[in-house]
Specification:
Helix content: 40-55%
Strand order of the largest sheet: 2-1-3-4
Number of strands: 12
Number of helices: 10
Order of helices and strands: HHEHEHEEEEEEHHEHEHEHEH
Length: about 325
């Protein structure tokens, strides 16, 4: 009886185990497939300014992890990263440079050639050379002079589109399986830039040959693209001009009777008041080399277009 009972029990156990193997109550957990594992490994991209950060993040989306480590209070063109941050650039999958002598620290650093992209290379014939300007200082980056080539290329929105294309090409080369996705994002980005370019061109046509001043020598590509009649001084929005600077301004106004000065940021209230006494109104055109306090590159540029429209003669 015990043997028969034991046999019956074992047979039942075999049936239970067999049924469980064929139809489990819940499916077993699966490890990540190769495709899922690949999806979690994003391409690491480092940039030297905010426009390139914006382009890479918008074009790459979830495929990329984009870093732009410059502090918000510094000008990325003259910022000097620590050795640790330079090492992070060196280890990135892709390094996006503006080129045209932008980011002075690159003169002292070695980056992997095969992973470094100069986004302005395709329009080298349109780089604007500079005469060496006076040495001056502003912000934590200290003393420097403007020489070599003008580097705020993206203020010509046609050149900004060329830089976006260079970013897209680099991402496609690194992620060829996602070419269609990146190209689709590029198409919408180029459409946005083209629309802003048209708006700014229309406003510039209304401004015409009206004399303008710009507070700092960073607007060369803006002036060249949109045909502005502008002359530059070397003033900082948060620093009161010296007596010598005021005298130079008055002498400049004798030969270039401007009614507007374009600034990188809103000038000090006392400066704006004295400019107003001289018949000069102030408008802000944010170059957006660093992260804006709010919004993104396109929203800042739309604000810049609106600021330029305030200069334009009424339609």
């Amino acid at each position: 009886m015990r043997i028969r009972t034991l046999f019956t029990g074992l047979a039942g156990l075999v049936l239970v185990l067999g049924f469980s193997a064929e139809a489990p109550d819940s499916p077993p957990e699966k490890g990540p497939t190769e495709t899922a594992a690949e999806a979690t490994a994003k391409l690491t991209v480092f940039t030297v300014n905010y426009p390139l950060y914006y382009f890479a993040e918008r074009l790459g989306g979830d495929l990329v992890a984009v870093s732009f480590p410059a502090p918000e209070e510094e000008d990325p063109a003259y910022w000097a990263p620590s050795p640790e941050i330079v090492a992070q650039y060196q280890q990135a999958d892709l390094i996006l440079l503006n080129g045209v002598s932008y980011a002075k620290w690159l003169e002292r650093a070695s980056l992997p050639v095969g992973r470094t992209i100069y986004t302005s290379s395709s329009f080298k014939e349109r780089w604007i050379p500079l005469e060496e300007g006076p040495v001056h200082s502003h912000g934590p980056e200290g003393e420097h002079s403007h020489k070599g080539y003008a580097f705020t290329t993206w203020l010509d929105l046609e050149l900004a589109a060329e830089q976006a294309k260079a970013v897209a090409a680099a991402l496609i080369e690194a992620l060829p399986q996602h070419q269609a996705q990146i190209e689709a994002e590029l198409e919408t980005l180029l459409a946005d830039l083209a629309a802003l370019d048209r708006e700014l061109m229309e406003v510039a046509e209304r401004i015409g040959d009206q004399p303008l001043l710009v507070s700092h020598p960073v607007y060369q590509y803006l002036v060249a693209r949109y045909g502005l009649n502008a002359r530059s001084v070397h003033w900082e929005p948060d620093e009161p001009p010296t007596a010598e600077q005021w005298q130079e301004l008055e002498e400049l106004l004798d030969s270039h009777p401007a009614g507007w000065m374009i600034w990188e940021a809103a000038p000090d209230a006392s400066t704006a008041t004295r400019l107003d006494d001289l018949g000069l109104q102030s408008a802000v055109f944010h170059p957006c080399g660093n992260r804006p306090p709010a919004g993104d590159l396109l929203s800042v540029m739309r604000g810049n277009v609106a600021a330029m429209a305030s200069i334009a003669a009424p339609e």
